[in-house]
Specification:
This protein is of the alpha/beta class and about 220 residues long. Helices cover about 40% and strands about 25% of the residues. Strand 4, helix 6 and strand 5 form a beta-alpha-beta unit.
Length: about 220
């Protein structure tokens, strides 16, 4: 029953209630959500970047300042409207945002140096999604997924936030088992994957880096 209610909650949060998404994320994360998302940027390399599930557009605005061509896809029209408004607040040009599903990426093969996704829903581990990611990545390209985060528990805000993340199923209950599962999933698809916790000032981030093999010389 809880799984059904959570699925319903997140569906509406990404669609009809997208306007409160940032507020909900801020509360659940103890104010750290945007910092966690932004912390991915130093891992992103190359000129051509694709973000899967751009949401309200925070990472789009950050990536655009440091890379030649940044694209984003998201299924939610409500999120796209919010992201476009945010982007135009920072830049005079229009963002490269596309409404699409990750299982059917509307891009040619070997297009992107890096593909990135932060706090994605379960679509990210669907076989068809992984196949599409592999297809549009350049040889030697990298997939970066921020799966989960947690605060240090030396303050009540951290303990409160970690408790909410557990309730909302936004953190694996067994990290070791989850790590093995996703690494095997992406290894089977042809990637060289590594998933691990990364310590930052505000807590820890669980990140997968999966590299597509380079082209044979």
């Amino acid at each position: 029953m809880l799984d059904f209610l959570l699925k319903l909650f997140f569906h509406h949060l990404y669609h009809s209630f997208a306007w409160v998404y940032d507020w909900v994320a801020w509360v659940v994360s103890g104010g750290a959500w945007q910092k966690w998302v932004a912390s991915i940027e130093p891992l992103v390399t190359g000129e051509n970047i694709l973000e899967l599930g751009f949401g309200t557009g925070h990472l789009q605005t950050i990536l655009t300042s440091g890379h030649k061509a940044v694209f984003g896809i998201d299924e939610s029209n409500n999120m796209a409207r919010i992201a476009r408004r945010r982007f135009r607040h920072f830049y005079s040009k229009n963002p490269n945002l596309v409404r699409a599903r990750a299982q059917w990426l509307p891009f040619p093969g070997a297009r992107f140096d890096t593909i990135v996704s932060t706090f994605p829903t379960p679509y990210i581990t669907h076989n068809q999604t992984i196949e599409e990611i592999y297809r549009v990545l350049k040889p030697g390209g990298v997939l970066i997924i921020l799966f989960a985060a947690m605060h240090h528990e030396n303050h009540w805000v951290g303990r409160f936030s970690n408790g909410l993340f557990k309730i909302f199923r936004q953190r694996p209950s067994d990290t070791d088992a989850f790590q093995l599962k996703i690494e095997n999933l992406f290894l089977t698809a042809g990637f060289t994957p590594q998933a691990q916790w990364h310590s930052i000032q505000s807590g820890k981030l669980f990140i997968l880096k999966a590299r597509k093999p380079p082209a044979l010389s």
